[in-house]
Amino acid sequence: MLKEAIYHQPKSNLAYAYDEETLHILLQTKKDDMEAVTLIYGDPYIFDKEEWQFQFIDMEKSGSTVMHDYWKVAVKPDFRRLRYGFSCTSKTGETIHYTERGFFESIPRDKDYYFCFPYLHKGDVFHAPSWVKDTIWYQIFPERFANGDTSNDPAGTMPWGESEPTPTNFFGGDFQGIMNHLDHLVDLGINGIYFTPIFKAYSNHKYDTIDYMEIDPQFGDKEIFRRLVKECHKRGIRVMLDAVFNHSGYYFLPFQDVLKNQEDSVYKDWFHLWDFPVVTKPQPNYDTFSFGASMPKLNTNQPDVKKYLLDVARYWIEEFNIDGWRLDVANEVDHTFWREFRQVVKDVKPDAYILGEIWHNSMPWLQGDQFDAVMNYPFTNAAIDFFAKQKLSASSFSNAIDEVLHMYPDNVNESSFNLLDSHDTPRILTLADGNIDRVKLLFLFHLTFIGTPCIYYGDEIGMNGGGDPGCRACMVWEHEKQNQDLFHYVQALITLRKSNDVYANRASFQFLDGNHDENTIIYERKHDSMQVIFVINNQTTSTSINLLTSGLFQELTFDGRTFQRNSIEITNDSSIHVSPYGFRIFEKTQN
After folding, report:
1. How confident is the model at residue 515 (pLDDT cuts 50, 70, 90)?
2. Could you give the 3-state DSSP secondary structure of residue 555?
3. Which has the closest alpha carbon to 135: 254, 249, 232?
4. pLDDT tens-digit map of 274-287
5. Beta-carbon neighbour count of residue 418 at 10 Å?
6. What single string gives the DSSP state of each residue in 181-222?
7. Any bridge partners for residue 450, and if so which?
8. Is 563 helix (H, G, I), strand (E, B) or coil?
9. Residue among 69, 287, 323, 328 flagged as catalytic
10. Which of 303-307, 350-354, 379-383, 544-548 has the lowest mean pLDDT?
């Protein structure tokens, strides 16, 4: 038994309040080291004849990474408080007892030796908006989705889709164009739109804001945006805007005042200036996003900056009834600001969704006092590397996904923003070397996983494109140029996800063992009495596996438009054939 690998931390992703009654408690151990783990637990104030009273409950192995196993159990304390430890039995038969004070051969009788969850407070439970768990997002880059009103086109606008995208060209995408194509999203099954920035800016991408209180005129005006939000809401579609609060644009009036008046500018404290005079060339002498002179970093500790940005957050919800904020470069803004931001947003609209753009482990922002979710790039990276690039084996992929699932509490994972690509990355078809079968497997896993999935505009019809600017091409609207087979496939998967909680966020997820090869994964979703087993063969050759289970199942097969169900009997020695880049889905209702 490797005791050094045994780890637990209270009030973290390893011990948290899942809801107002339930604690989830996890233990990390060396991979394949333990045969069994049991939780020792009791109320800290219950004694019998001066002896502390405790109970036992077996923990289940919930997943594994390259180096660790995770053991998990749900407990409902009678009085909302708990002391607890762990009894660990190795595969060699050794048993030790692990508490806050270390390891013991016999179970300690003193409650003060044990880990402590002092009290399960209602106010400490992480709550994301409930509607998010049932949302399928669609990311729109407004400049490239559709041009519905040529009267607001910027000077030099190119004919739609007739040129390759560049960092500086314009094609005239606008709000009217989006409204003209909302039925496409409804047909697909979308019920949430994430817009990249729409505020007045110099560039085509609009991440260099000039005025946070104004719509960029190339998209329309506030009245048409108000109509757009209302039309989305009529169709059951939520609207999330992109806020760039880490930095402004070069032409932001306070920054222009700094360049003009230098040390005499009333706005000099709005930015992180190193010295005077402020210069942009050859290198900026002020903090920026990356090293971009056109995107000076805002000082969110400065009271006037803070008030301005918090007024922005409040204004677009109050005036236009938007449903959420996506926060650009969120990890480079101070935590104090985000706590105040959350308070403002939730005061105006308690069920607004707050999403941070963070590409790494984000637990410090997900304590319930800042964000409801982050963009789940660790999920993205693992899915792309396995399905699209085929750089990972099945075991490495399952390890990576299990690491993602154990990075955060379950109630955080259920609202996590899962994406496959975006305006910042190459498109999935390009990442998959143009192989549409790999893309279909990506969508299958994406739309049957825990979290709130997002589709980047055009992926559902087979658009390709490399990294920025290639991933920002004009949406293809000519029916004959769209991959309609892929569209109907994604549409059917979304319908399936919405049809039963077992395919979405209220079901457990677990990879299953079996005698399969290193290009095949098997995973299970469970909810109430329903069990679904997925087998995905991510290779150019067929494979056969044994599910190590038996019973009468309903197999789901895709007929080009919908998933059909047919009964199938599976026995412990049944050989399940899976075609190249194929999948099998089996449903079973437990008696």
Report:
1. low
2. strand
3. 232
4. 999 999 999 999 99
5. 23
6. THHHHHHHT--EEEEPP-EEESSSS--SEEEEEEE-TTT--H
7. none
8. strand
9. 328
10. 544-548
* 154-164: pLDDT as tens digits: 999 999 999 99
Greatest C-alpha distance within the chain: 86
Q: Which of 212-233 are b and which e, b meaning 16 or more Cβ less than 10 Å from the residue's Cβ?
A: beebbebbbeeebbeebbeebe
Query: In which band, very low, low, confident or very high, does the pLDDT at 108 lie, cut at 50, 70 and 90?
Result: very high
Confidence of residue 32 (pLDDT cuts 50, 70, 90): very high
- 85, β-bridge pairs: 40
Is 328 among the catalytic positions? yes
Measured distance CA(211)–CA(221) in Å, rounded: 13
Residue 591 has pLDDT above 80, yes or no: no
250-285 residues labelled b (16+ CB within 10 A) or e (exposed): bebebbebbeeeeeebebbbbbebeeeebeeeeebe
Cis peptide before 296 (omega within 30 of 0): no
Mark 137-151 as b/e (b = at least 16 C-beta within 10 Å): bbbbbbbbbbbbbee
**Stretch 356-370: mean pLDDT, rounded?**
95
User: What's the rounded Cα separation, in Å, for the pair 193 and 318?
Assistant: 18
Distance CA 580, CA 486 (A): 17
119: its two tokens = 């009290």
How far is CA 582 from each of CA 62, 176, 398, 429, 586, rounded to the nearest angstrom? 27, 40, 18, 17, 14
Cβ-based burial of 445 (10 A; exposed 0-12, middle 13-18, buried ≥19): buried
Mean per-residue pLDDT of the chain: 96
Query: Which pLDDT does position 161 carry in this prediction?
Result: 96
Predicted confidence (pLDDT) per residue in 384-418, tens digit: 999 999 999 999 999 999 999 999 999 999 999 99
**Cβ-contact 248, 288 below 8 angstroms:** no
One-letter amino acid for residue 591 of the chain = N
Q: How far apart (Å, rounded) are the C-alpha atoms in residues 134 and 494? A: 11
**CB neighbours of residue 178 within 10 Å:** 26
Opening angle at CA 441, ends 433 and 436, nearest 5: 35
What would the two tokens of residue 213 be? 């209180």
CA–CA separation, 513 and 509 (whole Å): 13
Rounded distance between C-alpha atoms, residue 457 and residue 468, angstroms: 14
Instruction: Establish whether the linkage from the previous residue to 77 is cis, with ω within 30° of 0.
Output: no
For residues 136-163, give the mean pLDDT.
Answer: 97
Walk across the sheet containing 520-527 and list its strands.
508-511, 520-527, 530-537, 583-589, 551-558, 563-570
pLDDT band per the 50, 70, 90 thresholds, residue 76: very high
Out of 69, 149, 357, 372, the active site residue is 357
Exposed/middle/buried for 186, CB within 10 Å: 0-12, 13-18, 19+?
middle
Confidence band, pLDDT 50/70/90 cuts, at residue 46: very high
Mean predicted confidence (pLDDT) in 35-52: 96
Known catalytic residue: 334?
Answer: no
The phi-psi region of residue 152 (left if phi > 0; otherwise alpha if psi is between -120 and 50; otherwise beta) is: alpha
